[in-house]
Structure formats: structure tokens, C-alpha cells
Design brief:
about 40% helix; single chain; globular; 8-stranded parallel beta barrel; TIM Barrel; binds phosphoenolpyruvate; 8 strands
Amino acid sequence: MRESVVVGNWKMHKTIAESIRLVTELKGLLSGKRDTVTVVAPPFTALNSVSIALQNSHLKLAAQNVHQAAQGAYTGEISASMLLDAGCSYVILGHSERRLYFAETNDTVNKKLRLALDEGLAPIMCIGERQEERDAGRTEEVLTIQLTEGLKGLRVQNLAPLIVAYEPVWAIGTGKNATPELAQEAHATIRKHLGDMFGSVFANGLRILYGGSVNAENIPGYVDLPDLDGVLVGGASLNSESFAKIVTSFD
Ligand code: PEP
């Protein structure tokens, strides 16, 4: 039985005061609910304040990115040990916005994954096809390349903390969510490919999340899909009531 995971990616939204307000509301709305692993990913500036606000709750903290080096002369970057120090236990890696606007590649994602795992941060690895790739019938090929290159050289015994998020690029922030059938098909493809790479025991235990225009209205369509173990939520995670409704759908 895989534990469900719901992650809120706040992207570049919320000041420190707004972040504290949002998690305080969430703590109230989700008190006593413990079946679903619930993770929030505020901007870097709010991580430590949110970590303090989350004390004595079951909510967990994620960063939205990490640098691939352990430390050094990388002006403007943040290391895994800094994220751990700020209270993070997860990190989102390879989000399509990072791939699109910040030139992240499967190779960069691979380096960041290795570092995150080495330092004790659980990686939430994002993969997904663009609209033109889907239209060209290349979805399976794109997903398998992202997995093969992103997880290259990693050993199955180190991969237990890994979470994969299937996020079709055309569904992110567009209001055009993938149908549950389409999400299930992609998740099954991902599980099968990871079974080929790392064996069926690992693949059957892996949590695979769907992300792309999930909200409190469309979430019921996803919760019972056999290969879906939770969701990664952008826009709808900025509102405490919407996000709490999404979380409790999995309880
Ligand atoms: C995301 O940014 O990971 C995401 C899924 O965004 P949205 O829910 O807004 O589509």
C-alpha cells in the first residue's frame, strides 16, 4: 500500500507574512488528518519561517530547487545543506518552468538528484511532455528519456526517498488538466519503465504524482486511479481551502 502525497508548489508567490498566514490556516484545516503526506513548497525566503510555523504539525517542507554542488562560489544559489538547515525534507527537481526558463536539462536534474539523495533530501522529480511532443505521439519516448537520463547511474538501494511527478507541460497553469485516463496511462508507462530500470519491487513501491491544473473541483476524478499516488498542485495550493480539500480527498 503506497502512502498518498500531496505537494503544494507556491512558485514565486507569497511574502514571509503571507506564507505564515497560509500555513497557519492549513494547519487548522488539516489538524487531525494524518493519512496523506502533505508538503508545502514556499519560496526560499519564507522556508525557515514556514518551518517554524509548521512545528507540531504533520505538514512537511519542500524547496522548489537546489544547486547541484554541495557548496562553493555559485553566487545566488542555494545548497542542499542550507535547505536542510532551513527545515526542508523534500526538494522539487526538474520542474518544467526550470527546464524552460533556466535551461535545466536531464543531466542537471541527474546531478541535483544525486546531491539531494546524498545529503538526505527527498527528491520530487518532475517529468512531462510538451504539447507538440504529445501531438507527435512522442509522450512515452519523452518520459522514458527523462527517466533514463535523470536517474542515470543511480543505485536502486539509494532511491527509496524518490517521488516522481508526471506533469505534462501543456497542463501546467493552463486550466487544461489531463483527463484521469490520460494521467493513468502516463503513470503506468512511468511505473513500467522504472520497473525495467530498477526492478518491480522498487517500481511497485514508488509514489507517482500527477500535476497540471489540479483543483478542488477536478480532484475526485484522480484519487482512485491505480497508478496515481497523489498530486503536485500549483495555483490551487495558494488558497488554504482549495489545498485542504485536495489533501483530504486522499484521506
Ligand atoms: C505546478 O506548477 O507544478 C503545477 C502543477 O501548477 P498548476 O497546478 O497551477 O497547473
